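Blackboard transcription, Thursday session:
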Amino acid sequence: MNAEIITIGDELLIGQVVDTNSAFLADALSHAGLDVSRITTVPDRRDDILSTLKEASQRARLILITGGLGPTKDDITKEALAVFFEDHLVQNNQVLEHIGHRMSERGIEMNPLNVMQAEVLSSCEVLHNELGTAPGMWMESNGRVYVSMPGVPHEMIRIFTEEALPRIKTHFGGDAIVHRVLLVTGVPESALSLQLESWEQALPPHIRLAYLPSLGMIRLRLTAHGKNEETLEGELDALVEAARPLLGRHLVGEHQGSLEELVGKMLTELNATLSLAESCSGGGLSRKITSVPGSSQYFKGGIIAYDNLFKVRMLRVGRQNLLRHGAVSAPVVEEMARGIRCRMKTDFSVATSGIAGPGGGTPEKPVGTVWIAVDSKWGTVSRCFRMFDGRERVMERTVTAALGMLLGEIARSTE
Amino acid sequence: MNAEIITIGDELLIGQVVDTNSAFLADALSHAGLDVSRITTVPDRRDDILSTLKEASQRARLILITGGLGPTKDDITKEALAVFFEDHLVQNNQVLEHIGHRMSERGIEMNPLNVMQAEVLSSCEVLHNELGTAPGMWMESNGRVYVSMPGVPHEMIRIFTEEALPRIKTHFGGDAIVHRVLLVTGVPESALSLQLESWEQALPPHIRLAYLPSLGMIRLRLTAHGKNEETLEGELDALVEAARPLLGRHLVGEHQGSLEELVGKMLTELNATLSLAESCSGGGLSRKITSVPGSSQYFKGGIIAYDNLFKVRMLRVGRQNLLRHGAVSAPVVEEMARGIRCRMKTDFSVATSGIAGPGGGTPEKPVGTVWIAVDSKWGTVSRCFRMFDGRERVMERTVTAALGMLLGEIARSTE
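(Written on the board underneath:)
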């Protein structure tokens, strides 16, 4: 069963706003077993909206539409939908009441533009917008379902999750879809592809494999379609087991989310804590760790020791080591990791020190040289990386590599 | 002149990746005076790619294509382009050499999949991919231009900026476009609009003004279209000079780049230093500051005080204040800013403390409540913000607001 997404709004076509709605909807539909086969972004222009609706109707059975429902003149989605369905707009009293309630709650007078927001297609089923004034609409026509929602992300997410998705599941039923994601580090995509060649060629047609590379790591995603979810789970389990020996130590774990979520999950399971001492990653590692909801349970804090004096004072790094080996060295990065873990009394700590560039490189330690250390009660491990492609990439890759090393040490601690 | 963007990749249609490439390209084209009229996202399937190319060719004169150029089997954009242009793939020796060089630099063996990445359409002009192995391609057919680029954002951005955009400007010629951006803080958009009313009304029709508000700051962007770039520069210079007295102390500076670059520029000019104490921004502020090359000259370091005990121990925040007012309060965030500045002996410091969510909110301090303080020898200023749309947005917006407040204080110190 094919679905399409249409996002409407001039702001998307001048790049003022990044379209995050499509990714949210695509993710939610794909988890519900529906394939999104196209996403189209069009401006707030009637002809563009109409032609896109027409084209999508020829290909898909479910069409999700976001945007263009605001109170101002440039929002014309409702008008275009009325033309498309040969329908007209009628005032909905429940919606009007909800709008009035929201306005009075905020001490704002109702104006004619607000009243117009209570107008919906006469043939639609209204989808309640708890967090805003523009209602969602559910339309059925020629065996197809159309869902119109506002473009404001948190309003759309609430309407979709609570109003649209349950109706979609009931309406379409359909295949089960099961995903597995393997996180792989330390091997380039092309080499990985060769390593997995025969395994990949033996995949049955209802199971697809995708390589999703990001900095310093590759996600291997298996997607199985079928009638029975349990059977699919079993098939994927067997495939993952068969892949394990092929991936060896490059396999970090099996996880659908991000590395930092996996760190959080593993630390929470162990009831363990974490602290950080960052130099060349400049706060990027802390930022990733704290992006996970609930991270305050295991992340105690960190230090960004950009200045050497700061390394000495706050992390008890020895001046001798700094002078003899330089800040970007195994002895210093290990002292940083031990220093912060001792200071913060955490179970694990990570330290980074490197030359992000563009300045600061030497023939022995060129730009992109990065040392990373992980400290725990099982000892300190450190590793040197050579990273490329400019300051931003070096900083980002340092974060990914540090998360990878940390995951490895957490995993080792449970063996 | 209409342009369209086609982004290709299964990962976009299951929502695993948010399409940031489209917004980047749409923004860049709109700055160059080209209108994007549609963005289409399709899976790595030949028929979908071909039909989308066909449709876009009927509407647009410039078609930008990203994605599907990786070394693995699921990437089929090149193959689809060959069918579309009735062309074939040939090995390009310069590209092959570049790939070989990148691989040997990293100590990786070349394999047959890498060699295949050096294949390009026989009729294309190769666009060099400095940061990756998949080359960009420039094709012309029936008066239309097609540009194919890899989907990895940093590779795409580099190819587009350095290789594609100059060719697009030459090919489509057209008007000169000149921009000026004024950064304004400490005044709401509506008040600013009144302050500038007569100045704005006197703008000639070929010069447009846009208010681009972000948290804690507004960018005023002037865009001039015309035949002669020099004339336009002169006109904009005069307009900026006329605006200066109207904006007074609210004008932070004139700057096209990022806020963190402007912080770096201003601190360097003043020969001043900076330290940070972050709680709810979780390292994001440090990460932004350190993303600027040369930031080690003015940024000394920072502390991420996630745990309250850490705030007490490292930043000398009073337990009394924590108990009486809570961590998210003016007294605590001001103590954090003073604590880190004193500890690091810097000229400026910034502290953040807030409730990023999803947990931790209360009726008095709901999720999204954020306090930010800036400390310097001229004193401590703090401000409370209310931010929305989930943990990630709250954290991002805290960083932007903190940079805005810091810029305001740096500017005030030079008066």
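Lecturer's comment: Chain B has a mean pLDDT of 91.
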